[in-house]
Amino acid sequence: MSGYASGIVAILCINLIFAYAVFITAAAGQLNLGAAGFQAVGAYAAASFSNLGWTPGWATIPAAMAVSGLTGFLLAFPVLRTKGVYMVLATFAFGEVVSGILLQTSLFGGAMGMVVPDYLPLSSLVAGAVFATLLVFFLMATRFGLALRAIHDDDLVATVMGVNVRAMQVAVFTIGGALAGLSGALYAHHFSFVEAQYFNSTLSIFVLLFVLIGGTQTAWGPLAGSLFFTLVPETLRIGGSWRFVIFGAAIVLMMVVRPEGMITRTLVARFRRRPAAVKPVAITVGEPHVR
Amino acid sequence: RAQDITIGLNMVKSGALKNLGEATETSVDIAVDEINAKGGINGHKLKVIKYDTGSDPKQAATATQKFAQDDGALAVIGPFSSGEAAVAFPVGERLGIVQIPNAASAPNLTGNYTYAWRLTADEGTQFTRLLNTLKKKNIPINTAEIMYLSDERVANISGTQFYPGILKAAGVKIGEPVAFQMKSFDVSPQVSQVLERKPDVVALAATPDSAGKVIKELRRQGFTGRVIGSQIFADPNALELFGRDADGLLIVAGFWADRTDQTRAFAKKYEEENAKRGLTSKKSPHHTDAWAYDIVYLLKQAMEKAKVTADPSKVAAERTAIRDALKGIRFTGVSGDNICFNAARDARLPGFIIEIKDLKWNLFDQHPADACTDG
Amino acid sequence: MTNATAIGAPMKSITTKALVVVVIAAVFALAIALGGRVIAQQIVSGLMLGAIYLTVAVAFTLTIGVLNFLNFTIPSLFMLTGMIAWGLREKGLLGFAGGWAWLVALIAGVVVATAASLVVERFTFRYLKTRHGDATEHAIPLVSSLGFLLIFEHLVILTLGSESQRFSVPFKADIHLFGLVIGAPQLVSLGCALLVVAALTFVLKHTRMGRALRTIAENPEIASLLGVEVTRVVPVLFLLTGLLCGLAAALFTVNYGDVSPFMGDHVGSKAIAAMVLGGIGSIWGAILGGLVVGLTETLSIHFFGGDSVEMIIWGLLLIVIIVRPRGLFGAVAVGKGKL
Amino acid sequence: MSADAMLKVEAVNKSFGGVKVVQDVSFSVARGGRTALIGPNGAGKTTMFNLISGVIGMDSGAITLDEARIDHLPARKRIGVGLSRSFQNIRLMPHLSVVENILLGQHSRIGGLGELFAPIGWISSAPARAEAMRRLSEAGVDVDPDAPVAGLPYGTRKRIEVVRALMSQPRLLILDEPAAGLNPRETADLSTFLKSATADGLTLLVVEHDMAFVHGLCDHTVVLNFGRLIYDGPTAGVRDDAAVREAYLGARAATVGGAGRAA
Amino acid sequence: MLLEVENLDVRHGRTHAVKALSFGVGADEIVTVLGSNGAGKTSLLRALQGLTPTSGGRVVFAGEDITKLSPPQRLRRGLALVPEGRQIAISLTVHENLLMGVYCRDDGDIARDIKRIYDRFPNLGARRDMSASVLSGGEQQMLAIGRALLARPRLMMLDEPSLGLSPLLVERLFDLIVEIHRDGLAILLVEQNTQMALEIAGRGIVMELGRAALEGAAADLRDDERLAAAYLGDGHS
Ligand SMILES: Nc1ncnc2c1ncn2[C@@H]1O[C@H](COP(=O)(O)OP(=O)(O)OP(=O)(O)O)[C@@H](O)[C@H]1O
Ligand SMILES: Nc1ncnc2c1ncn2[C@@H]1O[C@H](COP(=O)(O)OP(=O)(O)OP(=O)(O)O)[C@@H](O)[C@H]1O
Ligand SMILES: [Mg+2]
Ligand SMILES: [Mg+2]
What we know:
The complex is a heteropentamer.
Chain A: H1 3-26, H2 35-51, H3 60-79, H4 84-104, E1 114-115, H5 122-141, H6 143-153, H7 155-160, H8 165-191, E2 193-194, H9 201-214, H10 220-235, H11 242-257, H12 265-271
Antiparallel strand pairs in A: 1-2
Helix pairs in contact in A: 1-5, 1-8, 1-9, 1-10, 2-3, 2-4, 2-8, 3-8, 5-6, 5-8, 9-10
Chain B: E1 5-11, H1 18-21, H2 24-37, E2 46-52, H3 57-69, E3 75-77, H4 82-95, E4 98-100, H5 123-136, E5 143-149, H6 153-169, E6 173-174, E7 178-180, H7 188-196, E8 201-205, H8 208-220, E9 226-229, H9 239-242, E10 250-253, H10 261-276, H11 287-306, H12 315-326, E11 340-341, E12 347-348, E13 351-357, E14 360-367
Parallel strand pairs in B: 1-2, 1-3, 3-4, 5-6, 5-7, 5-8, 8-9, 9-10
Antiparallel strand pairs in B: 10-13, 11-12, 13-14
Helix pairs in contact in B: 2-11, 3-4, 5-6, 11-12
Chain C: H1 14-35, H2 37-67, H3 74-90, H4 101-124, H5 139-160, E1 165-166, E2 174-177, E3 180-183, H6 184-206, H7 208-218, H8 220-225, H9 230-256, E4 258-259, H10 263-278, H11 283-304, H12 308-323
Antiparallel strand pairs in C: 1-4, 2-3
């Protein structure tokens, strides 16, 4: 693979894991606009452990996931008291607070950032991305995933159906936090350096766009969204600042054409449609018993 | 036909740092054209491959990877900012390719990366020079207050470490440094706080945009003393932004356009070339632009010394040879004469104290580069 | 969820209102007594800063309260006003300079921002056609508006550069009183905002237009069945948004004397905080929220330093959202409907 | 009959901001029987269902299922003790397909994490899915099981709700206007289906305005009016009760035999 | 004919919901459309009001081709629809919902007309200033009907108006329909309550898989064996 391609693949892998982190909560109807905060927690955790000299180098990854997953778990309780736009903004506020704290804390290098001694090559990133993708695909195919989608549509009815809505939401916040942490930890180790300024609200907004443009209805959505967001700007590379304009226009058009995201359930169904087991048959006047 | 010598340019043409970095390309192009017009390097034409990172560190790392693995570049100019350099230096070290940034001036960035060299002036050195000039010219400074941009690394470290240390060492009474951020468009609370302490001068560490706001607010709230500052906002193109409020401002710049015939020629070409490219606001070279121009010549000198051939089969060896050629090099360019590098591979550069008066830059004093005793 | 009922709802009662005023006054008195002139100046600066925030916050709260749409183009409309005004004046496109050029340029800026807002309406409007309201439904226009944010910001950068620019006005915009500096444009901003609010409250609560907007917010299909020309009514709202942003930006420009392609982002995020603090969809809430955020900003800078601002404001917001999920003055949000 | 009462509602009260919507209502539903809850619009029937299923809390009173108090259980746990419901205003999950909506009905039956994380989407012949399909065809819903429910006709969606409620294998099934939007023929089919579904001991409580349906299906009827109980007895007696006729059935009931929906 | 429908086609993706349907409604008629689940009745009414795009055919109202007009434009010409399933604005109060019903009117009789609605549906009067979200299912249905009546259309299309109404109110509803028809409104009625619909209608159309399977005078349809078999089941008639 060329150096350029492997660079882009690395970025893609991180974006993809990050997008799945946001997707898993969005699948249950909760938009997370503070994802960069979780990513930052993972990245700084990995960076700190690495600086403490943990061996082997990759041991920081599960630890960082645990830290950011725990952050998600703890944040879920207060944040889940809110709904809709309030929840979006509560998570946004969380992201701002995290970057504020990191910027202020000299233990984490403040504005100077932190160097990460242990380098992890591209293959680890790919492995991480494959793991996240499989995990989310698997989760979405289980009853757990079904319940998430039910909560997305109507949490009250889901409750009546016996779904423990609160526990589910806490679970996805935890999983989402851990996945965001994974992306952050891999970022830290691959790029060998973290700084608080990087994990800003723009990053949170962009990753949410990955997911919303890709589509929140199936696990294919984030995949499509991250590919779109990583590759389209690259193909537009020649354009300088124009590329952002074109990119913005592409987003707007995308929403006009496919307001529910690039990949919807209907689209997926069309590709793997099995022959309909029961054909709809109508009652014909005169032959009432055809059904 | 002789093979071209390829170098990479890791630059910022879009994103958050666009304004600061967009003219780097112009300077590099000017230098490359000059070199090629005079027969290139060791008989080879010099070719630059450019990559716009959009101010994203991940992209800066990708760029270095691309230059080294795909383009067969022998060395890299850039990346532009400290944040990008911090990410790209380890990549360059792994791949064994020299990178020389022109604006990444945060301290200790080069660490143990032997392929990381810098043609940037140290913030602390420059500020010390400014204070020396103040003393020399008998400008009274008994009390000073520090205001700094906290979410930019260089300004942050200047405001929290260099300025307090240097001012204290010079016997100036100072208060707690006051922070503001890139997004603080209203700095009146900070200014009120600072003026409450009635300082003789205000020492400012910020990018031009933010500095402009602070200077304006200082005057609005009635401050009449001098504002002093370091090289971060020493941008000749920011005069308009500062306006009349900046009268009496003293700053250090790493480049003085009116120094020699060579600098004047460069400044002229710079303005013309930018006008052609639609960068009409870039009229006079910022020191980072001058350094970018010099880096090309520095690389030329190193390549000549290393006798590079641009033979694709010898790329790796020649990259290392360039690094080794940089050791102990003495270089003369638009930024200064007889420039050397210290043990940390950072250049020793001269400083020019500038006073702003009547919407103009005036040379107030100048300091030669420090000698390299350890390099 | 729909917050439409909250729009224009006056604060709960006279007692709440009085209580708020008393508490605020007490805090001021205490602060001034303890801190003297600087604190007084900080409070004045905070209120003035709040005046800018609150105008933008009202624009946010309008679109979100009525259309359930977090309009992320608002920051860029704000920015457009300033940058276009600067561009017209600087590049001599007005045909004349000096004298009143600054005012003409600003008015032109407001016009452009309003026009841009109408363009946004055309494309974000599309969401009204999606069939099923669900938890992420507000995401659709939100995404488009983020697209527009990119477009506007980078078009401006392309044509006018990415630097901060000076926009000077030929008069001193400050009032000096008891040794305090007070920004006149900000005073004007405060006054305008209060006027606009009084008018908006009335319109939304008591007029045909207000009811039509609220019906559209809830279900555009019902609205169209009742004869509401969705394509005619909604633009009115966007027109208002554009005007409010333009007004805020013009006052901002006169006050701070500079513009930049990023000015909108900085004001925008604080305005969002102000809106949420006050309660989404509540216009009075946006006003109070704006003032609270402004004050919090200056006072936290004063007491805890400039780096604490983001943390304190967003931390405060997080706490408010969690303990009082509807904001300080938000009305009861309507749920999904009957079982 | 109170001896084998499955569901007992005792002295239940509920008011919303001062308006008493359910006032001191007591009745019981016989085990294995089919009971109707009827009453004029706004009488409090749906509210009663919401109280029984725990969607809203009551002010006072007691609700017991098989002698055990259930009124302190959260809504999510009530389906676990055997209580399942449908909704008057159809509340299917619009983004889920028909079969997924039905599968959701089984959620309360899964036992532990193992089943929660067992993939159901990948294997089309999984037993859960097979059961869902069987139930659908038993209920006479002829649609593509993978179609999203959003575009389906009203009557079809109504029946999918009933099937979904049945999927939890409840002991007590409460249905809010299951026949609304069905034509007489379909109503009759639904009635037959519900009779067969309750044949093996399932207890049924329905709210319905279609009196023909009620007469055909239910042996016992409870009538609410303005939140108060005005009749509790055999369905056959409803037509002859003056209060019920005046409040609910209207003058026609006296003249036309069936009342309401003609049949 | 006040309303003329020619070869109307409606598709939802791959579902062909209405197939080349032609019929008319006279200015002084009550026409009822019957049909089983999924026959396409709702699709037809929605297409007539302009909520669903048509994929073929023409709709002519009072001599004017309205096929391309938007729902509000159709309403202004006198065509109103009470949609299926209680479509009311739950974030408005009951009274505000009614006021929305007169959105496109500006004559002086509004107050009187609203009072008439309250008289007709006392449940609504008692909840005048409550949020419509708290209404019971039947009350919501009343509100939807009352609101549509206030638009004073020339042709009123009702999609299963009796849904969820108590027998008493169903009776009142049908009386009301007859009454407003006497006031000069044409009615196009979709109903599952076949018998009562055929009682008040002059003509009836039976839809089946998007086509008109039977059409004729209501009285004839009532006695039609085939209809009875299809709708009323064996031994029910
Ligand atoms: N949250 C609430 N606040 C105030 N009043 C309410 C609330 N919920 C229901 N009501 C009122 O309680 C009464 C009973 O409502 P409910 O939905 O139980 O009626 P219902 O018997 O199901 O009628 P229908 O047959 O029309 O569905 C109605 O008059 C309704 O307006
Ligand atoms: N939005 C939609 N998307 C996809 N298919 C649809 C949509 N709306 C209706 N259909 C299909 O069109 C056909 C006709 O449906 P329609 O709702 O018109 O029936 P109906 O006669 O009103 O039935 P009901 O009596 O149950 O209300 C059905 O097969 C239905 O699945
Ligand atoms: Mg009910
Ligand atoms: Mg229908």
